[in-house]
Amino acid sequence: MFRFLIRISAFISKELAEILRQTPLILTLVLGPFLILLLFGIGYRSEARPLRTVFVLDGNSEMKQQVEEYAKNLGPQLIYEGTTSDQNAAMNNLRRGTVDVVVVVPPDAMETIQNNQQAVVTLYHNEIDPYQVSYVEAFGEAYIGAINQRLLHSATKQGQEQASSMQGTVQTARGSVQSLRQAMEQGGFQAVQSDKKDLVAKMENDLTKLDSQLTEFDRMQPNVMISPFKSEIKGLVRTRITPAEFFAPAVVILLLQHLAVTFASLAIVREHSSGSMELFRVSPLGSFEILIGKYLSYLIIGGILAAAITATIVLGLKVPMQGSWRDYALVLLVLLFTSLGLGFVISLVAKTEMQAVQYAMFLLLGSVFFSGFFLDLRYLLEPVRSISWALPATYGIRMLQDTALRGAPINALLLFALLGIGLALLMISWFLLRRRLQLSV
Amino acid sequence: MASPAKTDSPIIWSKDLSKEIGDQSIVRDINLNIPRGLIFGFIGPSGCGKTTTIRLLTGVYRPSDGEVRVIGKHPTNFTPRDRERIGYMPQHFALYPDLTVWENLRFAASIYGVGSGRTKRIRHLLEFTELQEHRRKLTRQISGGMKRRLSLAATLIHRPELLFLDEPTAGVDPVLRRKFWDYFEELRHEGATLFVTTQYVSEANYCDLVGIMIEGNLLIVDTPEGLRRSALGGEVVILKTQEYLATAYIDMINQLPFVQGRTERTGENEASIVVEEASTAMPALIEWCAKHNLSVDSIQAYLAPFDDVFVALIKKLSKDN
Question: Is B149 helix (H, G, I), strand (E, B) or coil?
Fold first, then answer.
């Protein structure tokens, strides 16, 4: 029994000594995820996102003043971006992302309502995230509901004014009837016929007026009275995207980024630990040749994996492809290139394979939180959002969603930004590798 | 083999070459003058600075002090072309365990830019190192000895004219060690210069020139015979007579002009005699025996084991210092 315990203690002391001698690694293991969560907690904006809204109205619309007044007073969820009569320009702004919602008010809205029909206000958005689509729909409903409520309020007030005028008419008619009755009691029917002709005519007129107002009220549809406006929500993307379809491009990007970073982060640190780096130093190999060779090999592997993952989601999960395959491939190529650069920098900074894997895992964790994978970037506060734009996945997810789900062409700014980061990482890794291959001491 | 430049200048030359790492002096004042086309054995115990010297000569380390020229250039100024003339086999296996033997050689060929005739060259080296049958095996699956042979084959792939082999026989069984030295001799015949480090003192026998290094200092550079001579004071002849070799005879032998050191009796009728040159001393000794009515049973030059030579040399050099 005693020997048994001694043998066990051999491993306890050995493992503890080994682990405790890697204090920086342990610290990063513990503190790294906490740091990511802390940043996320600081940067996450939990309140509902205000929508930048532009209104499309006919230039001569009698509703312009009302719309502006309502828009400015409908609460913090609506950021009033003005009114325009140019619907195409407004839609282009929506496509470009400078506004979130375009509200088109029909030019003949009042006429339609007067014709006893609901006026349809159309809200356009450019969301593909099912959660965001629901949010815009709820926003539209609430917005139109609020307008209807205000209109109902003003209509009730107007009705009360009309009722008071009608009350006057009724009192006048009642007065006429009393006068008529007195005349009849005093002078008989003949006298009434000759003296009170005007009074009778007035009475008839009042009653006709009353009758016509009541007929009009009676004719009105209850739903038009309660909700003179109704909303119709339309997305620029015609088909409704399911959550599975929405997350598919993001999953592809995140997987490929992680694979590329992991492969590359082990690539050079492994050469170093195996001793091959010393062979390279003595050989005619240059740092650029090593790096380009590694880039190309991992791009080939990444390309094969990307094809396999794409085939799985398109053929297996039936995720539709709205855009061009060429754009899709270009996005993945640039993403792989940039992710490899990130991996190589990790590989040249890390001292051991374990450290390299650890850094790659942090990057994955950070990407899950900050790349817009599960949470729209618009919910992150600006300083923290800059972390998102340092991650290749952020660019990749946006571009691939645009291409695959919206069928839109690649956003050139995003593509060149990602490519620029990739080239910068290539230069950094080249510099670090050169330094490592040069005289070590 | 790349044909070495026809010049008399040494392929490796250094003057007071020193290296310090941090505040520790690793090698001090190394002076080398190694001609082309021979095997230079660099012998010394583990940790004495052999690998550091190789790293200084191959340009991995920048010298702290002194001058150095390898294939006519300072190693830190080597161009890729210069590096193609050099082969380096590190002490530890640095190839890829998940590649096959053939794939590792193909990789080594590629990094040296060997294009045409690559397959033929790989086949030749596989035969040379007797790995032909194992070419499809993953390197992780082959034995330690095979890995050393594979490393050697990878070092030779581009036909270097100067080879740095850092302890190629370390941890290798005696039969394979012998084979390795046969390979090295073959390479030297083909015109290559080999700079071989080893901990095995006995391997000095296979070298044309030997340098002995202790604690960062290069104590001596000489031929194996020269080292023996330095260690023992000359060449050793063992004389065995049929009669008893009396002390008087030993004293007389000591008086002979060609005898250099002190003659020692190694048996009743046997003596170990240190002479200037064994080949001329042996007939003279036979003649001397005949003159003194001693029948020579046997007489032969004695090649002292290098372990003994090494120990004697260290003692002598320590005493001199």
Answer: helix
